[in-house]
Amino acid sequence: MQQTSPFDLAGSVALVTGAGRGLGRAIALDLAKAGADVALGLRDPASDHGLVDEIAALGRRALVVAMDVRDLGQSRVAIDRTVEELGSLDILVNNAGGGIAGPAIDVSEDDFDAVLAFNTRSTFFISQHAAKHMRSAGSGVIVNVASQAGLVALPGESSYCISKAAIIHMTKCHAVEWGEYGIRVNAVAPTFIETDGTQSALSDPGFHADTVERIAALHRIGVPAEVSGAVVFLASPAASLVTGATLAIDGGWTAR
To answer: Domain residues for 90?
Structure first.
């Protein structure tokens, strides 16, 4: 199918991890709006919350794949199934992740290992398996969802910050190694975004006010579309010369 704009993803197949809610859901929908068929990586395949129907209403195919990113065997099967059932894997978005809060002086070994396994280890090995398919095809795009926490220190979030900083550097390493196969690898680093995952923290008036103050240029909390639009850009031909980059979507927090 002929592309009509540099942001057109018609004919592409994307896989989004953690696609059931929040940023993952917004990313999956915007990729579909740009023309991609989308595999939805879900820990609970029965809980797509209507996302399959929304993507189908856009005229795109949606495939639910069981994918707890901490289970690398299951994740590799999800990638293989995407290729088998949708015909290719052109775009991978490593969105799933999380953290365990606590002062650095009190972080346990188990909690530290759990956060790095959830964020960094999963991103590395899921990207690795996807890249093998992309290498065979001669092209592909990987977009990692990092965080501003990988660029600045957030008190009480040391293991999360470390895991996201590792993803940012991993993005550079994979971009350099896999460029010869036609694979581009980039990352986005969002600030606090209004999702169900941040609702509890942002509902505290003091935390909300401090966060808005630290978002030093725009002084407001972000919304999912401000991240998903950037992911579509990085996945699209419009970003064909962009690789190894991390785009901060932080309203100016890290520019301060």
So the answer is: 13-255
